[in-house]
């Protein structure tokens, strides 16, 4: 268990936190409260993007952070430089000795469906320490969950068959934003990422071929040091690919009604160079000059020359213009050219598209009859433009075993007090009916038993009888020790898709979905009422 | 120079790149083009947020990345695992030997005003290598520049006197997104950040006091181990702060017409605990229960008790409700209470506010007569919701000394070919008139000389006579060596504010600003025309 968490990234240091965590730490320490047993819950108040679900993600990163949490001398010295000069040195000794050996975490497993108010993490331990953990935990969970949820929505739009490629590294909030986006958009349902580091460190399938710069870097006057290519079967002589392509160019141009001078020679040289490097994975980027008059005939010439040697091109990519319509036209040309030259595989060469694809454009590209096969999405998966932040919060729910509640005059910002358990009620078909929050000390609800609960936002209780009951929160870290191996990214990805398949379609609608009910037990509801009325804290 | 760049962050590894950079690398290598001299430009096509300027930022991070760029064995092995199994081992040897000793970078200095099409970076070196650098450089520059620009806009709205605190770490795209946001929102004009790591590693002033959890963690039954506080002057006996606060509570409640039981005892205990830890920097967070009936009288009691000992409270914070109106009311109460108890400093205690403050709310809070002094902004500075990505691109402009251009049928995506120089024309008052792009080989324009130029987007040339001419791009890295010490963050921050002060207000308007002109020299314009018409590449 130790091994699998090590070495993944070195970003998250204990000082990656808000200064007020440190000033509060001193306040707790001075008040003799530093070691009081406390519990915080990390949750969100509203599902992102106007939807009705979210995917919980980031747990692995949290575990990695907690297990290595330790203030270094330089960290403590920096804090001393920004805290009052007469601060008791005992406080800094206390900070130096901190680690997570007294911290226990329960959590929604990575990839779980999460709903408002249900804790993604419950963190308990000494008050000073678990307070200090707030900002890094929020930072690790919020964006991971946001981008996983965003990816899941895009997957719902695209349907199961389109291949979705995340390619937003350059549009992210710096290096780690890009890394997090790549990992968690895969978890949320994408097929692959362009981000090589996400492949290296987390096993995300990586994909990529060539950019316009590659194409435009060639003028056509270059002479490849070795233009010879052996057949795929290795049987038979190697051929001069450039020469073979030039022969095919004449046939293709003649069939398409183009002059052989029209297709750009530099683009063709680039395609040949790429084909020599990747004969089994040749892809053409068609729109550096003109798709119809240059990119397409050049691609076809190279693909057909490769085909003679037994290699099949793996795709074309479009990065500008009307992607849906061009895909249609290109598929038509592939069919016609494939028939003309008796190359049947040509008609099913995958067509990949990219260029600022958002939910709306993805809907169009995923419509029935679309000839698009692969969709590269950057900005709109990574930046989550509909809602660029998840709004997770981390709230104190108990101190010294006594429930705590933030009352405030803004009812939206009130918290649910007390250490809690959470359960999911399922119908007889395994679909999700409702999530229940209750006090930790209450007996768990039982399948087949009727229960009166208070749905959040409702003024009246209702009665539910679940066919099955699943506990939602798993013990992950107990007194600093990992309790079980963390699931792999692929396991979490599968779990997320399975969970989504059990959610009623009404909750999965992307616009105006039916709200998924989260309810409080009668006891929890009574505690909220009592504390709201100013009862004893 | 070496020292100052080291150890800042370990995030940016060479594999933090798109896979297609590696596949293209193999393509270049196979085509014998790997070591061709190439030049790329990094620029944006449109100013973010509908504005008319951007601030260039991220250069220091780029230099740090370039100087340490080196593929490790594990990196090369990973690439080998995703490239064709029969790839020539010579390619991987080539990768292992790569470093930036052949790379030269010219750039807009950190904090410069940047406009569409003017390169933020010009990167030249061996084609394969400078292609590989694309994604990490984009990743490092785009978001840094976006958030610096966003911060500059927020500063323009707030005016020079409000203190702006960035506090968005928990809303960022993971750890490094938060770090980048903290550093570059400071560069763009914020006063401080909550992010302790940005203070430790980059010297950003850090700020923070206490959260609701600190307040709600106290019930009021706690007994501080040592409630005694000595006077600020250290002359005279220590007093029991709790007892003194309780005496003041009676006087304050009586004056405000409240029962002494109304203010929450836990909140008061929290304030006392904080005051004991920070007697010289006491701040009250007022809205955990009720501002008027609890937070305010509790704050006043503690502030007045501290005042008797010679300490002055440094502020209050509001985090919900109508912030402008509450600030008005609180200032009124401070005045009245200050007069009543003859504590004149009370009326000028700074009022800090936070809670999802965006451009619109900031405009309201910054209006004339506002009593708000400090404004904490998280989500809307960090996530840049108006435009969460800068859209920078990195385009090939020359290979082997010959200009390159992406033509494409989408005119917006066409590039400006050739190695270029850039100049800013200034009026006699030092204000910025126009930026000029010309070919590197052209003689620099001279002050006082009339010149015919082609403003981008215009169909006709125009004539300009600058009073002064400033070259825009500085040589930063020459054959892998830093050419001069990089400016400090504070120097860049000052430079950004100075630059903004020289920009005509018409270009600084946040809605519908006048577009700042960027023009091409006649020679550059002629080259574009010639290449667009299919002239020799």
Task: Describe this protein's structure.
Chains A, B: Residues 420-527 form the Nicotinate phosphoribosyltransferase C-terminal domain. Chains A, B: Its EC number is 6.3.4.21. Chains A, B: Belongs to the NAPRTase family. Chains A, B: Keywords: Cytoplasm, Ligase, Magnesium, Manganese, Metal-binding, Phosphoprotein, Pyridine nucleotide biosynthesis, Transferase. Chains A, B: GO terms for molecular function: metal ion binding; nicotinate phosphoribosyltransferase activity; transferase activity. The structure is a homodimer of 537-residue chains. By secondary structure, chain A is an alpha/beta fold. Chain A folds into 2 domains: 2-151 and 386-418 and 473-516, nicotinate phosphoribosyltransferase (Alpha-Beta Barrel), CATH 3.20.140.10; 208-377, TIM Barrel. Helices cover 38% and strands 18% of the residues of chain A. Chain A has 19 helices and 23 strands. In chain A, the strands form 5 sheets. The first copy, chain A, has a 7-stranded antiparallel sheet with strand order 15-14-1-5-3-21-22. A 6-stranded parallel sheet of chain A has the order 7-6-13-12-11-10. Chain A has a 6-stranded mixed sheet with strand order 19-18-23-17-16-20. In chain A, helix 3 runs antiparallel to helix 7 (134-158). The two termini of chain A are 40 Å apart. In chain A, 56% of the residues are buried. The model of chain A is unreliable at 1-8 (pLDDT under 50). At the A-B interface, helix 2, helix 4, helix 7, helix 8 and helix 9 of A face helix 2, helix 4, helix 7, helix 8 and helix 9 of B.
């Amino acid at each position: 268990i130790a091994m699998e968490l090590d070495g993944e990234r070195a970003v998250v240091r204990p000082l990656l936190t808000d200064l007020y965590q440190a000033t509060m730490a001193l306040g707790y320490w001075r008040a003799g409260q530093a070691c009081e047993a406390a519990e915080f819950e990390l949750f969100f108040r509203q599902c992102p993007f106007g939807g009705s679900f979210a995917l919980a993600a980031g747990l692995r990163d949290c575990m990695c952070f907690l297990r290595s949490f330790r203030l270094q001398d330089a960290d403590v010295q920096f804090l001393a430089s920004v805290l009052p000069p007469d601060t008791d040195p005992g406080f800094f000794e206390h900070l130096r000795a901190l680690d997570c050996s007294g911290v226990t975490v329960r959590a929604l497993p990575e990839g779980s469906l999460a709903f408002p108010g249900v804790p993604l993490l419950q963190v308990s331990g000494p008050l000073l320490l678990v307070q200090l953990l707030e900002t890094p935990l929020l930072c690790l969970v919020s964006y991971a969950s946001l981008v996983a949820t965003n990816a899941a929505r895009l997957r719902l739009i695209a349907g199961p068959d389109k291949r979705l490629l995340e390619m937003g590294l350059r549009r992210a909030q710096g290096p780690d934003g890009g890394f997090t986006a790549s990992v968690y958009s895969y978890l949320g349902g994408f097929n692959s990422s362009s981000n090589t580091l996400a492949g290296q460190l987390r096993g995300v399938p990586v994909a990529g071929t060539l950019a316009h710069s590659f194409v435009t870097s060639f003028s056509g006057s270059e002479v490849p040091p070795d233009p010879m290519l052996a057949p795929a079967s290795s049987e038979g002589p190697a051929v001069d690919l450039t020469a073979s392509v030039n022969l095919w160019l004449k046939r293709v141009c003649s069939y398409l009604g183009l002059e052989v001078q029209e297709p750009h020679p530099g683009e063709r040289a680039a395609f040949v160079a790429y084909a020599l490097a990747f004969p089994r994975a040749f892809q053409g980027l068609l729109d550096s000059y003109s798709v119809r008059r240059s990119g397409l005939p050049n691609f076809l010439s190279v693909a057909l020359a490769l085909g003679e040697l037994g290699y099949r091109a793996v795709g074309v990519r479009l990065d500008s213009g009307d992607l849906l319509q061009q895909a249609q036209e290109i598929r038509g040309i592939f069919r016609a050219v494939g028939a003309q030259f008796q190359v049947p595989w040509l008609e099913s060469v995958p067509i990949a598209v990219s260029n600022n694809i958002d939910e709306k454009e993805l809907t169009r590209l995923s419509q029935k009859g679309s000839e698009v096969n692969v969709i590269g999405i950057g900005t709109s998966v990574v930046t989550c433009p509909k809602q660029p932040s998840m709004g997770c919060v981390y709230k104190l729910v108990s101190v010294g075993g006594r429930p705590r509640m933030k009352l405030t005059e803004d009812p939206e910002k009130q918290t649910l007090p007390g250490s809690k358990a959470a359960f999911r009620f399922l119908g007889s078909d395994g679909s999700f009916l409702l999530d229940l929050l209750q006090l930790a000390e209450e007996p768990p609800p039982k399948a087949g038993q009727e229960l009166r609960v208070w749905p959040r936002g409702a003024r009246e209780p209702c009665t539910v009888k679940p066919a099955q009951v699943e506990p939602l929160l798993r013990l992950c870290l107990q007194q600093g020790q990992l309790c079980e191996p963390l699931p792999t990214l692929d396991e979490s990805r599968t779990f997320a898709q399975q969970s989504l398949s059990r959610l009623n379609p009404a909750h999965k609608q992307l616009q105006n979905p039916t709200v998924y009910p989260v309810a409080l037990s009668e006891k929890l509801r009574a505690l909220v009422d009592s504390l709201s009325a100013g009862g004893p804290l």
